[in-house]
Every structure is written in C-alpha cells, then in structure tokens.
Records
---
Amino acid sequence: MTILIVGSGHNALVAGCYLARAGEAVEVLERDEVLGGAVSTVPRFPGHLVDRGSSAHIMIRHTGILEELELERFGLRYIDCDPWGFAPAPQHTDRPPIVFRRDLDRTCAAVAAACGERDAQAYRRFVRVWGPRTRRVMRAFGGPPGPGRLLRAFWGLDAGAGGGALSREFLQSGDALLDSYFDDEPLKAALAWFGAQSGPPMSEPGTAPMAGFAALMHTLPPGRAVGGSGALTTALVRRLRSDGGVVTSGDAVTGIRREGAGWRVRTASGRNLFAPTVISGTHILTTLDLLRHGGFDDGVLDDWRRRIRVGPGIGMVVRAATSALPRYPGAAAAESARGLQFLATDRRQLRLAHGAALAGELPPRPVVLAMSFSALDPTIAPPGQHQLSLWAQWHPRHLADGSEWAAHAEREGDRIIAELDAAAPGFADTVLDRFVQTPADLERELGLIGGNVMHVEMSLDQMFFWRPLPELSGHRVPGAPGLYLTGASTHPGGGVSGASGRSAAQVALRDLRRPRLTALSHRLGKR
C-alpha cells in the first residue's frame, strides 16, 4: 500500500526519501505547481533565479542527511559562505567592520581590530565553550523528541559549577549570555541578530542556545546551494523518484478522514485515495483543518488550535536585482558579500522592532539581514548583475489599525532598502528591479500562516517535546493511528534542517514494521 505525504516542503520530501529508500511505496501530494514550499527557487526577474523562502542553509549540513541520502549524486552542491558573517561599522565611526570567518584565528583578529583585545579573547572562549554545546544540541535535533534527548542536549558537558550552572546557562536569555561574555555593543548586536533568525528576540528566556549557534559556524558555516535554495528540493525529488516515489503537484488535499484501518484522502481534482499511512508536512493548523473537514472531533481540534501559538509574525523580504554588490566602507566585497550581513549595530533596534510587532505596528526601523549570494553563485543572476535578499524582522501579519499589507508593501520595501543604503551608501541607486514579500504574501504563496516562516513560535515552551504541543510532539496524532506529522511545526522547528522529516519517517517505519513482524511470527508459528 502507498504511503501518502501531504505537502512537498523539504521535511516532507526528506521523509518520503527515507521511506522510499526503505522499500515503501510513496506518493507526495502538493497543492502548488512549485515543489518545495519555502525551500524553492523561481524566476522573478529576467535572468534571475530567486528564492521564494529560505536562502542560506545553516543546519542541514550538520545533520548527516545529505550524506545518508547521497544527494550530491542527484545534483546537489553547496558552496561555503565564508566569511559567514559581516557586521558593518556603526555609522559615523572610524572603526573597522567585523568579519566572521570559518577560521577562528582570523575572526578573533577582526574582533580585536573592531572591538578590542578583551572581546577577541572572550570570543575565542565563547566558541570554545558553546561549540561543543551546540553540536550536542544538533545531535538532539537529529531524532524524535523526548525528555531523555533534551537532557542529553543540556547536561553531561563540562560546567565549572556543575549541572545546575549549565542548565541555568542554557535557560537564560541570549542577551544575558552575550552580556556575560562581551563588552562591545555592535558585536553583541551582530550575534543577537544571528540568534534572532529563529524568530524570538534574544531578550526571551531560553534563547541562549540560539545565540550560541554562532560558535557552530566555525565548524561548518552556512551553505549556499548552487542554483538557489530550491536546488535542495530538486535533489530530494530526484532521489525520491529514483526509488520509485511519485510526486504530484497542483492538486491540493482537501480532507483526511479515518476509514477502517487507514485514511481516505481527497484532493481538489477529485482524486479519492486510500492509504494506511499518511504523513502531513503542512503547517500544523492546516493539518488540523484537513482533519476537521474529515470529521475529526471538533472539540479536540478547537482545544489544540487555542493552545498552539503562531505569534504576530516574524518578518518580510525584499528580493532585488542590482547592477552591483553593496559597497560597505572599509570592506572589500570578498569580506562582505559571501555571507550574512547583519545590519544592526545596537540591540535596542531589535527590541524596538519586536515590541512594535507585538503591538501590531510596523518597526520604527526595520532590522535587516542582507544576503548577496550571486557573489558566490553567478548562475542565479545574468552577467553584469547581482541579486540580493533583504530579510527584515519583525513585521506583524495583522496590523493594529486594521489596514491591509498591500497598502504598506512598497513603502516598507523602500525603508528596508534604505537600511542597506545607510550602511553601504549608493546601494539604492544600483537596484534595477525588486519583489516585495510581505507577511501576507508569505502566507498566501507559501502557506505560512500568520507570515511565520517557523510555522509556530520558536519559544522555549514550544520546542523539543513541547512542539507544537506535548500530545502532538512525537510526530503522531492522538486518536489518529497511522497519521504522522512533520515540518517546521514539529521538533526541531523551523529552518532548513530536514531533521523532522527523517524523524517522522523513522517513527512511521517503526510502526509499520511492528505489525508486519507480528504477522510474520504468527505465520512461522503455524508451520
């Protein structure tokens, strides 16, 4: 019998690949004509291949998934983002920028030149302490969640004052962690902005590991898939099909109903499918809606929906075709253009933006992360042009004054470009074309409810075996045998890791093999 997978996000495809590799018949059903969800790349301007969602792949290269699925054999190739981070100097100062390279010694030299020798030594200590810790967290991300896996992530490492001190360090805010190591505010702002890419501000409890992930970049920096973020999806689809899997696009699943020993799945085109096993890779709220259409208990679904916190939204993006790369004072393009460009020099800017989002307001100043990956991969832009993605936090999906995002999109796009222009004077004049993706656009095009690219908030109470709820955290749905969950709504959350897909496949295969082994033992016992 075929296993049906709802949605073609990268986690869903990863799950499909592991199941097909194990010999299971698999079909992926995708509502969109473009596969991959937020890990996809499409033409937006003449000669440009532009990402629809993610751009830098930070986590998946630490998981082992690329090697286990042999995705290089299916055309996937990564280029290291090195330098992986760049923090321009605050305006109206003569200090140099901070360049974060994979090489720790060269990074510490850059920190010393910009921030002083004390912070350089502190940065070396930060990487020495938090590098092993973040590697351990990544291992905890690699399988289904559970208390034991959480404990293995947080404890068992060297902590001078014992396990209690270590647990306190993990549970503190990212800001508190940074304040305990560093003096220089622009350095702390850059690392806080890196940590905040998961969504929560570094002022929230439990965000210290998110800031600590910067240490892992000296082991393996973010990677840029050649051809765009969607190159990962392309390789996964090729891998799945090579093992007999089927991928169907442009046909949305409209309902999932329990029937006998399996699931009746209906699609917009009128297909009426039956499968003993279904894996849903959509947003958790979308999955609950599909169950509602299939007659699942309304009271249970209402309770789950009330308790899952999507939040106000995270951000928006401006995709720009340009005639040149940004020119930051005191830096060559080789230093600034290959990685993540952190355009925040004071954490007050981050805090004000987040506070505004909670109030349903636009940020006083957009907090911008610039990425110019055409400097690494010229295949995504025509000769003589470049391409930038300008990600900005925090922008609420629903505005307090009741206005629609269409009334603000272009003006907010102007403000985001102006932030980069202030750090790299003359940038605005190089923009040839642009595409603005507001939170409403992210929701409509990619199914990211509330404009939240992480699906649901990545706060401590919605991580590990609490994500998205304790009873839904094990990739299973109570009262729905044979239905499994994957995607950013589940452990370990958003970002491009594929770990949820692998874990969901492991859980499903374990359940599938148990009755098969039981049936086999019965048959053998009768002989």
---
Amino acid sequence: MKDFGPFDYVIVGAGSAGCVLANRLSEDPRTRVLLLEAGGRDNYIWTKIPVGYLYCIGNPRTDWMFSTEAEPGLGNRAILYPRGRILGGCSAINGMLYLRGQARDYDQWRQMGNPGWGWDDVLPYFLKSEDHYQGVSETHGEGGEWRVEKQRLSWEILDAFADAAEAAGIPRTDDFNTGTNEGVGYFQVNQRRGWRWSTATGFLRPAEHRQTLTVLTGAQAQGLILEGRKATGVRFLKDGQPAQATATREVILCAGSIGSPHLMMLSGIGPGQHLQDHGIGVTHDLAGVGGNLQDHLQLRLSYRVAGVKTLNQLSSTLFGKAKIGLEYALFRSGPMSMAPSQLGAFAKSDPSLDTPDLEYHVQPLSLPRFGEDLDPFPAFTASVCNLRPEARGHVRLNSPDPGDAPAIQPNYLSTEADRLTAARSITLTRKIVGQTPLAQYHPQEIRPGPDYATDQQLIDAAGQIGTTIFHPVGTARMGTDPGAVVDPCLRVHGMEGLRVVDASIMPTITSGNTNSPTVMIAEKAADMIRAGG
C-alpha cells in the first residue's frame, strides 16, 4: 500500500467546497494540504463551454451516475441524481447560476442554535470570494476568485414571460442576491467572457503551484483511518491501487451531501443499527448521519408557442447548428454560452407568506425529459420548484462495499404541505402564462396538459413531471441537538480531527440554488480552521 503524507490536512473531495478550502488552507507556508479527488482533471472541453452540461451530466467521466430509489411521490419512479466527479465537482457540470438565497435562510440557521451563521455573519464571506462584473457595492464584492457576470444573450419569449410575470404581480428585479430575492429577471452566472467558471478554475488553479498543496486525482476514498474516535487519515484507491494518507491535524470531508455521509457510514460513524445491518462495526453511533436529506423538486411545465424563435427550431437544422457554433466561436455568446436556465423568478405560492417560496427557471426550449431530444416545434419551459420543502429523506448504505453507490431516498411530495405547494405552483404558472404579454404567441400547455385541473389532479401531475434540480443538502446537518452531525464550527460531534465542509451541513435548504452558498460555507470554514475553531 502506497503511503502519502503526513499532511496537516487531508481534504476528501475537490468539488465546490474542497477547491475553496484547498486554496485557503494552503496559503499558510507552514501548512501541508492534500486534496483527494475521485474523478479526473477538468481538462474536458465540455466542462469549459457553458452548454457542455448536456454532455457532462450522465457521463461517467464527469458524473457519479447516481439514481434515487423508487420515489412513491413520483409514481415510484427512480430518477437520475447527478453529482460531479471531476475537479470542481458539481461546479464543473451545474447550471452556473449565482444565487445566495434569502437572508431569512441564514437567520433561521442561527435561530436553530448555530451562532455565527446569520445573514450578517455570512454576507462578508459571499463578498470575500466574489468578483462581480459591476464591482464593489454594499451587496457585492470585487477581486475575489468567484467570477459573476451577466448572461450574454436574451430571448424574445423570455422577455415576454418576464412581462407576463410582472402583469401577474411579480415585481421586476435585476439582482436576486441582496438578501430578498422576490422578483423576475435574468440570472447572473459564474462565467468569464462566455466560459464556465468552476471552483477548480477560480480557486484551485491559482493554488496548484504551491509547495504546500498536493492534488491527487483518480483517488477514490474507501474509508477513514481511525484511532478510536479520532480521525488520523484516509484510505483510498489511487488509480485502482490501495493507498493511504495521514493527517496530523484534521481530515475534512468535502464529498458533498451524498459522498460525505456515505464515507462516514462506511467508516463506522452513523446510525448504529443500520451499520450493524451491513456488517460494519460501530465506532460512533451518530444517528443523524445521512438523514435530513432535502432537495428542490422541479416541475417542468412546457408550452408550445407560435410566431417566436425558440431553441427547439433554431437547433433543429444543420444551418441553425452552424450558426450557433459560429456565434460562440466569434463572440462567446449565443446558445452555446447559455446556462440551462436564463430567466428566473422568485414568487409566493400563497400571498400571506413573508418571502417567496417558489423559484422559476424559464428556458426557451422544451423536451420530454432531460437527456432526450428537443421537441420538434417552438416551445418554452417554465420550471418551478418549492424552495422550502417539508419532506426529509436520507442517504443509506446499499452494502459495505465502498464501490457500491449508496441508497438515495429524497421522499419528494411526501407531506401534505409539499403536495399543496406543488398544486399551487402549477396554478400560478398558468396564471402567468395567461397574461396579455404572452397572448400574442398563443401558448398551449403540453406538459402536464390542461386536463389536470383539480388540486388532486395537479398533485398527480406533479408526481409525473417532477424531477430533481440537483440541490441535495442537509445529510450531516449543523446543530447542537442530539440529531445534529456537526457543531457550528463543522466538527463532527463525538469525534476528534474530523470536520465536514460542504452542502451536507445545511440545517435547512437555502431558498435558491445551492452552489454559491456551498462556496460561502467553505470560506467561513477556512477561517474557523485557521483560527483553531
């Protein structure tokens, strides 16, 4: 067995959080950091071109290729559950949308017993990383590693949807990131001049030359090295061969909401009876590991239109494809520079709510389901998700073999409140589409279709068209109660030398896309680690 180390810190996972931590911790010339990544280097062209997510999700070169268990709320469908498996992790294959969520999200974390995690506490860490195209302001930063730009295209059909949303009572906004995100407008994206900007590009690349940092790709963690309840290293396969690395200070798990709890359970840290059922000796019976899984379920409503350009017909001919390619080659703009969703809206499913509980991702295209061909007629999709689901799922072992994928059970639509919100979100979408600004394009609902009308029918429709929007969080949640996995400094309860730094520590899911909040978590964690917290 090849032995690497010793290092001060061994970081498992070079994704959205791991790349940030590797950069910050390796700044200290007295510190040695090892970063382990199961996937390969991010030299695949489709991790650079924004539209490349189409070729990265569902590709074993860049995706763990997970799927959920059969979901009762989705008609017992098992759905694909993409997770990045490459330097940059999910930030190398995701939708590139820069969103922080709402101030109330973080204030709620603080109120749940996590001091130091309120909005006023975390905003400086968003600003620290940020390199915003508009420069410095009260709510934006400049000069950081995390580039934020405007999108480089617009669509007539999306402009009309924005007008329709405004007519339906949703105000205009040009910035979803001020702490209150209500409104409709174009998303800002993590791109630079039409190229994807991942955490590997922004944080890892500038740090890789440091003698304090070692990066190993093709290094899949198999388990933690434990001395009693102290983590002292990691066992892994390096290009298929057994290896290990020791950490004199800490092992830091940045493997995400699926990978981090999975690795803990494989190592004997987790729900004791579950571990015993799989023949794993219990080092630390920690009930919360793998529980509290939360995700945003998106309902993709599609509308056929007439008299307006959409990507469906633009990409349906060789001439159209050539035009798209030429526009990107010459100007780094057009459909190849597109985030999966261009126009966004945050709205309330019930007017009595204090803040929006719905997020729209609106796209000038339609398709039966992700991975299939676009429809052969002009259409747009209004995808809507419940930002604050009540449903709680779990990640569990399928076997004690580290090579076997874990069991992922989000439990979508398993509560009455989530089902009611789903029905209301479809109703609100129809209200928006029925406004005058869209009437000239004669929108016709094709998915789920106008025959679904009553609340129960709309709930049934949600189960048929619902799918993940790739935001799993919460499976190693932060807190001080018996069900929590990590404390407010992200140290694993009851363990020494073990910390979790990724989206799994979120007590509740943020009201928006979760990638940039994960970058913030890593920024804050780096300061706590360096301060000895």
---
Amino acid sequence: MAAIRKLKTYKPTIFKADGSVYNQDSADTAVAFINCLKHTKGEWYGQSFELIDWQEQIIRDLFGVIKPNGYRQFNTAYIEIAKKQGKSELAAAVALLLTCGDFEHGGEVYGCASDRQQASIVFDVAVEMVEQCPALKARIKPVLSQKRLVYKPLGSFYQVLSAEAYTKHGLNVHGVVFDELHAQPNRQLFDVMTHGSGDARKQPLYFLITTAGNDQHSICYEVHQKSKDILEGRKVDPTFYPVIYGADEADDWTDPKVWAKANPSMGITVDIEKIQIACENAKQNPAEENLFRQLRLNQWVKQSVRWMPMEKWDKCSFAVDPDSFVGRQCYGGLDLSSTTDITAFVLVFPPEYEDDKYIILPHFWIPEDNLDLRVRRDHVPYDIWEKQGFLKTTEGNVVHYGYIENFIEELSLKYNIREIAFDRWGAVQMVQNLEGLGLTVVPFGQGFKDMSPPTKELMKLTLEEKIAHGGHPVLRWMMDNIFIRTDPAGNIKPDKEKSTEKIDGAVATIMALDRAIRRGGTNNSVYDNRGLIVF
C-alpha cells in the first residue's frame, strides 16, 4: 500500500478576510483530533486516519483561520472532487469533530443527502470510527434506530436527516455535513438547513462535499458557480470556502496529467490503473465517456447522452432465421407503452455453446388507423416497415391487446419461452391473461437498480459482437433513439423523456436480455458468477 503523505508545508488560504489570522493551535487541534480516528474500509481498516495533503489543507483552513472575535472565519465549505478520493471518511471525521471536538454545548450536527440511505453512508463511517476509538466510544451514546450519535459530555449530537425539508424548520444547527449535493432533487432541504438555521450559534459550519453533477439547473450547480466566481476573483465572500478539483472543459480527458487535477488522492485511495481502465471503456462508448468525465474528472456534463454507437450495432446484423429456433429456450421482454402507441415484444435466445451469440427476435405493433397519420406527423416510415413485415398493425385506433396475447401464445407454441419480463405500468390485465395461458410473467422495475446491469451488458455484448439482431430496421431505429440517464453511483438506464423518439423495443430488449443472462440455461445468474459489468 502506498504511504499516506503528510502536508509538509502549509500556507493559509488566500481568502482570509481583513483582521483574520491563522491560529496554529486551533488548526493543530483539529488535525490531531482527526488523526486519532481510524480508517473504516478495505486495506486501511484500523489504520490511523492521517490526512492526505488536500484534506489537511482544507481542515487547517476551515478550523485555523480565525476572525478577530476568536471565532472561525468560514461558515460554508464547498468541496467538489472526483469519486473515490476519501470523501466519506473526511466528511465523517468533520461531523465527529464538530460534534465532539468543537466544545459547543448542545451542538446539533446533521448529516444530509438526497435521501436517508445516502446520508447514512457518512453516518455509518462515523459509527465505525467511534467503535475503533476507545475515548469516543466511552463518551458517545449511539441511538442507531434514529441514526444519532450523542456526545454525552456536551449534550451534543450528530444525526442523519433525509430530504423531507418541510419537517426541518426550527433546528438550531451547529454543523451540517451535506453529502453528494449534486443529487439533491430540489433546493428545499439546502435552503432550510443553511438559511438562518445556525443564527443562534457563534461559528456554525456547513460542510458541502460532492462530485460534479449533470443538472445545470440544480442548487449544486448554483453553489458550484459561486465557488468558481470566488476562485476566479469575480465575487468576494469571506465566509465561503471553495475547493474544486476537476478537469477544465478544454482539457484532454485521456491525459493522465489531467486525471491528477481531479484526483488528488490518485495513487493513495484510487489506483491509476482503475482510471486507465475506465478511460479505455470511455473511448469506446459515448455514455461511458460522460460518466468518466463526471465521476473520474469531476466535470459537469449533460444529464443525458446519446448512447448506442450505431456502427457497432450494425456490425451485429448477423442473419437471424426465426424458423431455425423452433423449440429453443428463450426469454421475453414486453413494453406495452400506451394503447395508441407502439407495443414491443422481444425474444432473446441465450447462447447454447461457447461461440454462440445472443439472438434478438423483436415484434412490434401499432394501431392500423393511426398509421398514415403517424407517418406524416413523425416522418418515420411505419408504412414501409409494415409492408416489409417488420411492423404489425391491429384493427382500430388503439393497440388491440387481445391480438398481441394471441400472437404471444402462438410464439409460445413455437419457442420455449421460459419467462416474460414486463414493465408494471399499465400491464395488469395482459399479465393476468398471459399467466392464464400458462406463461411465466415477471415484473421488471424501470429504475436504475433493475435497468443498469442489463443496459451495460447490452453495450458490452454489442461491442464484442456477441449478439445477432438481423438488422431489424425498427429495432435499429429505436436503438439509435436512446439517450441514457445516470445516477450518482454511475448506474445507467434508458431515458424515455430525453430520447429523441420511441425506444420501446430497446427497453423490451434490455428486459429480455436480463432474464436470458440471469436464467439462461441454468438456475444461476451470470452476474453471480462474474459480477456486474462496471465501467
């Protein structure tokens, strides 16, 4: 393991206000408190928390720069940095320092995030730090059911809060640790926790720590812009402490020198080899480039990005003969959409031998009466696809679900359909009818948790040319329409709102592929054997 370096030279921040001084003793006390804590994860578990250079600079600035009245100058710190730099450990240490080492009687310190689960990440690290420190363990009472740590000598506490902002008025805040500010769905919780909540305290501290986001209308981007304005001299706020480690927009994102700008812990908490692997994946995939820039280089990126490289998709146009798969095991994905729109049912046949491919066999339906109107309105050749047999119509101006149920029943007599995955929305009656036909139908969530693994897997199989789709034009059109949404953890899913046109067939393919991968030929999941694909 690489040795954790210590800050050899320290220069107080350039944002010192008139009359403020750097108090060595105050800074040393804060650093010494944190150094008494221990790491809680991985290979460093149980080792002393010796601050890395960038961390120690922040702690010395925040706790060592003192106003003439003896209180801290900075009451808001905004730390924006790439993932895997030790954010959670630093945030937990700051939370404990404010709770136990700030000598604030009745101090209220809160951990906030986009939801209670995210806020609990830093809290759980703090709990483990207390467990490993006998002096704190003897003085802190944990109330884990409330996600609260009570420091008995001062009557102060550190507690997790979730995003229900309307319940948080009236708090007397001494400290707030705001984790992953970029994931906040709105500004309510931020405003409640930072506007007036600490007025009764002499030196409250709002510690905001985050990775760059993708919503430039968010509260985090607003604070990001304020930080940049202060760093670049366009604004002055002596109470606000900004730190941004990130690549500039014009930087070459493939250059390791640029990686170092956003990863001050590179070689310590994150291996350069892992960044190299992520970079290589990003070079091949526009969606992964977006994730790499956001999570690894701490750049603000667009929320959605066109996903499928169509030249790679077209290389998988291997011939598909539906009659050659009679009796073969397969898995279905059903996306009903609305009754006036396209309905998609896709079968995926898992490989039967080592060099075999995943076979994709799609089917699409549209209301017959809407066909000509949609061709004129959408400028999409539905009529040509219908004549070519790639798109089916049902009588009337809405999709006739009974016709589709009969069609799926006929397919089940031809192929061994093991399971059909479906989007829960709007599919209750059809699901009951399909189950009545003896088919196994399983609900499939449309959130990140369920969609991310097979979406990433579809890209991997496409790049490796391990799928065969026969060049189906409707499915190709839908694949080209896909835009991808990402969450703070790097999970992805198709974004129906941002996608340029219909993507129902792509979503059905992803659902069917998931079942084929998890169940294909065995009772075990491929994900269990080799883990998820992580870019």
